[in-house]
Amino acid sequence: MRHLLSTADLGHDEAVLILDTARELAQIGERSVKKLPTLRGRTVVNLFYEDSTRTRTSFELAAKRLSADVINFSAKGSSVAKGESLKDTALTLQAMGADGVVVRHGASGAAHRLANWVDGSVVNAGDGTHEHPTQALLDAYTMRERMGRLAGLRVAIVGDVLHSRVARSNVLLLHTLGAEVTLVAPPTLVPVSVGTWPCQVSYDLDEVLPKSDVVMMLRVQAERMNEAFFPTAREYSRRYGLDRDRFALMGEDAIVMHPGPMVRGMEISAEVADSPRATVTRQVANGVSVRMAVLYLLLGGSEPAIGQR
Description:
The protein is an alpha/beta fold. Helices cover about 35% and strands about 15% of the residues. The relative contact order is 0.17. The model is unreliable at about 300-309 (pLDDT under 50).
């Protein structure tokens, strides 16, 4: 594996290898010195054209825990603000000898283009409404951690599927790992291309909840909407929000997930978000381990991740 651009590029064994490696690397967070020398001398560039808190910080921490040198590149305050193209920025990074580039960009396909212009490994940290593969990997890791398995799990992904790169990546990865996915959303927020996705579609959240082992709520991405996709926020919440009454419809062992940031009161009530069966903060913690695993497997060569150093 040279790049991680899409979860569609991962076979079953490759995906399981990343999850198993992440489980090993999670031990680092429990040590007094949270570092491994694995990527010493390697340079990782975080190239973020869109604002991010969790993803950028998580990748930075992951690279530093593997002893890599990290450069954080933000479009704001850089030559990009002066009109520099993605290709010219890529050629600059190439000249600097970047071993790995983690990129988030507002245009779908940007990560694939970047991978053609640099010699180092490229990790897609979100490209437009296309994909966000490491988010899907950390979600799968969290499901396996909490539920003990992935094969046969019934997963409902609820909300703004149309604008969600998280939804697409999760559908593809979870299908590869043997889970059954149902998308639940208003008809206006379901992509036209969903017929080619390996999942089912429902418009009735109350009907799907009792059958689901995992319910993943999505953020309504108002910043990507240039027209009305539902009458009002209140109406959306009434039909597709996860509140106390809907939470009661779920099985006793079912869990609630959210990639963040959450819009409390609209997509999910505070009571549900703060429930012990909600994994939101655990997903953030697991994100560091999963991103360490991705960087290790892309840049670390054949050295063991843990032990035998």
